């Protein structure tokens, strides 16, 4: 026990020292020469690892952007300042999965616990972005009685429009579609803001509502005893929460299923993330209920779904396909050793590191034989690029899929396949992810040598098994219906309502 206590104390001291070094390095200035070396390092790694680097930008143009950036580096910068210079160039590659990680302050366990005992300041609102304007569309706790539809003009006297313009340059969709930005930016706006400005306990907002401006001061309030007990309750993983993939932070489920009518004619499936956790059981139980009820229509809602597991969307497709299918084309890599560049020991505890060390030879063996060469190109073996049979409980009726600019990555893969196979009617707006695929799969987590900024690079070119449209855009809906801010405030759903009316019309015509 004495030795164990010494080990724990040493680990705690090492962790504190690591946090201190990280935070000191985060605020230290780096010379222009070293920053230019980081730029060259980032571009070299991209050229070696990214399988479709010049999909949306020519090599000539990208070379020019990196060279031009280096010419602007003429004075020392902190890692955060450097991030705001380099990330816009990375975003110009137009690969939505490709992004530097913003250098954040690290917190000790004590500091994290203190933050956990306080309520969020900005996260208690839901937001809507249009052009360079930020609106509050939901005030969860009626804070200061701020009404939905209120525009936030400034935060601590800095115009919000300046932040939006600045942060907009940091993110990218896949390709040239523009629908992704307002959805993703509203979700990450305050991630950027707090990384840049820190976790303050107060913030002054200048707002505008119905032509009247008003100032509010937000406070980071302490949680009550009831709040803390509620947090504990939300963290419990009941069987229902596991299968429906409960998210404690938002007190909601990633997967929801229900019938929209008393006679179970129309089934509705909402999937907010393809997380894969317990998804096999969820789909097995859900489609058994749909089959037993004799439902004739199925609505699948993947709006605001940023993607996730390829296994999950392949499994979901098996419940929709009328015949054997292949979900994706063979996934391309830049080299046979790419799968070994995924930072196997990343974020491992001492115990995990020891266990992984024992398993490492097996891992290397498996990854080495996971690739193959064909027609001069290297591919990665995946189950989703092999023929899959429809599930015995596969749905035979009519399928509608709801999409919007927040439908990204795996959501775009499955909707592109459904549209190509004419298996569903897509309703909503162009997806944020590309119609013809993306680069993700798994990542090599690089770290720029001087700024220490983390740079995960996707290693797999993942494309739906379709004839490509080559538009460099998202998946286009069959029926275009957009949602306004007022619809959100009034809790109206014009896209779902259109589908309901279409089903009622079809039923009436029978």
Automatic annotation (TrEMBL):
Single GO term (MF): serine-type peptidase activity
Any Pfam family matching the protein: Peptidase_S41
Record's GO cellular component terms: outer membrane-bounded periplasmic space
Residues covered by the Tail specific protease domain: 236-482
GO biological process terms on file: proteolysis; signal transduction
InterPro entries linked: ClpP/crotonase-like_dom_sf, Tail-specific_protease
Origin: domain of life: Bacteria
Name of the protein: Tail specific protease domain-containing protein
Lineage: Bacteria, Pseudomonadati, Bacteroidota, Flavobacteriia, Flavobacteriales
């Amino acid at each position: 026990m004495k030795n164990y206590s010494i080990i724990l104390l040493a680990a705690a001291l090492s962790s504190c020292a690591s946090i201190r070094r990280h935070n000191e390095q985060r605020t230290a200035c780096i010379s222009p020469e070293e920053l230019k070396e980081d730029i060259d390092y980032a571009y070299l790694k991209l050229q070696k690892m990214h399988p479709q680097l010049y999909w949306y930008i020519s090599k000539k143009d990208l070379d020019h952007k990196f060279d031009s950036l280096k010419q602007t580096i003429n004075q020392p910068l902190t890692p955060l300042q450097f991030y705001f210079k380099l990330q816009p160039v990375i975003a110009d590659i137009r690969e939505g999965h490709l992004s530097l990680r913003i250098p954040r302050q690290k917190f000790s366990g004590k500091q994290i616990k203190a933050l956990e005992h306080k309520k969020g300041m900005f996260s208690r609102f839901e937001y809507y972005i249009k052009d360079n304007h930020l609106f509050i569309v939901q005030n969860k706790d009626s804070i200061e009685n701020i009404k939905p539809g209120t525009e936030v003009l400034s935060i601590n006297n800095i115009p919000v429009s300046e932040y939006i313009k600045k942060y907009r340059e940091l993110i990218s969709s896949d390709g040239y579609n523009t629908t992704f930005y307002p959805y993703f930016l509203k979700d990450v706006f305050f991630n950027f803001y707090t990384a840049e400005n820190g976790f303050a306990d107060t913030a002054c907002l200048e707002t505008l509502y119905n032509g009247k401006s008003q100032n509010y001061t937000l406070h980071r309030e302490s949680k009550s005893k009831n709040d803390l007990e509620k947090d504990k309750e939300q963290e419990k993983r009941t069987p229902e929460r596991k299968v429906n993939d409960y998210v404690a932070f938002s007190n909601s489920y990633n997967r929801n299923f229900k019938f929209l009518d008393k006679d179970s004619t129309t089934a509705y499936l909402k999937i907010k993330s393809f997380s894969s956790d317990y998804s096999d059981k969820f789909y097995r139980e859900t489609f058994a209920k749909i089959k037993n009820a004799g439902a004739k229509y199925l609505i699948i809602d993947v709006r605001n779904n940023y993607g996730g597991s390829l296994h999950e969307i392949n499994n979901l497709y098996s419940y929709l396909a009328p015949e054997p299918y292949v979900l994706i084309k063979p996934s391309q890599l830049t080299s046979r050793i790419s799968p070994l560049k995924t930072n196997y020991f990343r974020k491992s505890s001492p115990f995990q590191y020891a266990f992984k060390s024992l398993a490492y030879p097996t891992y290397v063996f498996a990854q080495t034989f996971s690739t193959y060469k064909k027609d001069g190109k290297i591919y990665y073996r995946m189950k989703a690029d092999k023929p899959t049979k429809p599930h015995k409980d596969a749905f035979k009726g009519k399928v509608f899929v709801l999409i919007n600019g927040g439908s990204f990555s795996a959501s775009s893969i499955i909707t592109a396949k459904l549209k190509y196979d004419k298996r569903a009617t897509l309703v909503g707006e162009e997806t944020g992810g590309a119609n013809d695929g993306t680069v993700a799969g798994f990542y090599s987590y690089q770290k720029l040598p001087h700024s220490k900024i983390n740079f995960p690079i996707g290693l797999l070119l993942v494309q739906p098994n379709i004839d490509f449209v080559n538009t460099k855009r998202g998946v286009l809906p069959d029926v275009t219906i957009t949602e306004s801010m007022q619809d959100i405030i009034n809790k109206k759903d014009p896209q779902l309502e259109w589908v309901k009316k279409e089903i009622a019309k079809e039923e009436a015509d029978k």
